[in-house]
Amino acid sequence: MKGVAEIGFVGAGAMGSALIRGLVSRGRMDPGKIAVSDLKEEALEALERDVGPFKVSPTRELPAMASFLVLAVKPGEVASALEDLAPAMGPHHLLVSIAAGVPTGFLEARLPQGVRVVRAMPNAACLLASGCTALAKGTKATAQDMERASRVFGAVGEVVEVEEKHMDAVTAVSGSGPAYVFLFAEALMEGAARMGLPWNVARILVKSTLMGAARMLKESQEHPAVLKERVCSPGGTTLAGLFALEKGGFRGLVLQAIEEATRRGRELSSELR
Ligand SMILES: NC(=O)c1ccc[n+]([C@@H]2O[C@H](COP(=O)([O-])OP(=O)(O)OC[C@H]3O[C@@H](n4cnc5c(N)ncnc54)[C@H](OP(=O)(O)O)[C@@H]3O)[C@@H](O)[C@H]2O)c1
User: Domain coordinates of the chain in residue numbers?
Assistant: First the structure.
């Protein structure tokens, strides 16, 4: 059975299966080269309907099937999954964990000496292959390990590499970020309705405005301040709206939100240690 798969996934829930779907739909991996363990039979069946047949294995046997493992269980389930994996692991294994807030030190301490560990922080938009993931090396991981991890997460969005000390800030920005945008969208819709626009019109306008602005931001090389200036005529409506946002402390509030979320991430990680 040894080495029969190119990659093994521990957990085929929302994120594990999104990664597998991304790898298969982009033609980066044949489903037959993927081994998966999950406690839920239904999760495996649903995934198989989408991507075709892959190898199924109990968690404790996965390390014998693949030397590259992705740990995609909830943070609270990590310790027990590692108990199953550790006895069959050694220095030829690379484990990439996506468990939010779980430091590489926590993983390395529960695995045999020499196992290479990479920590990944994907975000919810990876479920639509439009996400972003930050990767951080554990103490033994190599540049080649980071490249392998990048290829997997590159199937569901952008990938950046950071030092692990920045992972809490990453979580605060790209992990929590979609929720800030949803709050902003909700407020824009409410503002539109307050000015008398029907709700269905408000929803269409706000969604496409956010999508359009996001695309302009992504495709342009310009700083957002430059893009902002381009839609502001002197004495015009946009500057009047921006004035109200700045007067109400919008920019300062966003900075504070990132600081608070980073602080909370640090607190949660240190509780785990
Ligand atoms: N979803 C996101 O947007 C997102 C974003 C960033 C990071 N993450 C991280 O991704 C990880 C997975 O999140 P998720 O949303 O995909 O969770 P999920 O949908 O609950 O998926 C986890 C799956 O793993 C299974 N599982 C638990 N213990 C296992 C074990 N020992 N062996 C094999 N399978 C096991 C679970 O089964 P049971 O339900 O039966 O326990 C479940 O089906 C989390 O650590 C989370 O922090 C998720």
Answer: 7-167, 175-269
Report yes or no: 35 and 4 within 8 Å, Cβ to Cβ.
Answer: yes
Pocket test for ligand 1, best of 42, 73, 272 (most atoms within 8 A of CB): 73
CATH class label, 175-269: mainly alpha
DSSP 14-50: HHHHHHHHHHHHTTSS-GGGEEEE-S-HHHHHHHHHH
Q: Per-residue pLDDT for 3 more than 80? A: no
What's the whole-model pTM score?
0.94
- Specify the CATH architecture of the domain 7-167: 3-Layer(aba) Sandwich (3.40)
Confidence band (pLDDT; 50, 70, 90) for 273?
low
* Nearest atom in ligand 1 to 126's CA: 3
Ligand 1 pocket residue status of 66, Cβ below 6 Å: no
State the pLDDT at residue 1: 46
CA of 105 to the centre of ligand 1 (A): 20
